[in-house]
Design goal:
Layout: H1 3-31, H2 39-72, H3 77-80, H4 83-110, H5 126-130, H6 138-172, H7 176-204, H8 213-238
Family: Belongs to the G-protein coupled receptor 1 family.
InterPro entries: GPCR_Rhodpsn, GPCR_Rhodpsn_7TM, Olfact_rcpt
Subcellular location: Cell membrane; Membrane
Length: 239
Amino acid sequence: HTPMYFFLSVLAFMDSCFSTVDTPKLLENFLTSSQYISFAGCVAQMALMTLHGIAECLLLAIMAYDRFVAICHPLLYHTIMSQRLCFQMVAAIYTASIANSALLTGYIFKLPYCGPNVINHYFCDIPPVLKLACADTAEVETIIFSSSALIFSFTITIILVSYAYVLVTICRMHSPEAQSKALSTCTSHLTIVCLWYGTIIFMYAQPSSLNSMEQNKFVSVFYTVINPILNPLIYSLRN
């Protein structure tokens, strides 16, 4: 019931939702000849993928802050990271994620789509859907790029600042055992952060002109299927 394990349960829930949005449809496409998705289904799939992707970015930043408080202020840890604050943080994550997802999905599907209707991807991701629009997408792409860059810079700043303080605190510890214990509590989180942000930044924090659809499909498998599988394994083995 400590904050660390509360956030881990939320991460597990997000990973389950994230996988459930696109993997069943992917398996259906493999097993049947039909590779059809309705317009409403495409909207829902994109909205839910965006929602849980943003939520996971924000949650990883909060988990970094949790590690900062645990290592840098251990005596005040349970006072600062109270159960009420943890619930409020998770509620804020979902509020911000829903608002951002609704905004981006709304802008994308306001564009006219007059054919062809073949998405060059295995789910309704933002870049391949935008390529089907019959209007200029420069404004929408700017909004998407700005939103992605804002979320990534905000969350990465929290993670980097938190771990900078953690590193300084660990270096000041006189006991090698204490240093090892402190580092071991951060290793799992850092591994997941590197895997998640490495693929996400590659996908969404660059202009669409530099994107290759075939390359994007390959990278997408990592953050939609492989990462959610690896996350519980990484944390379970470490703990």
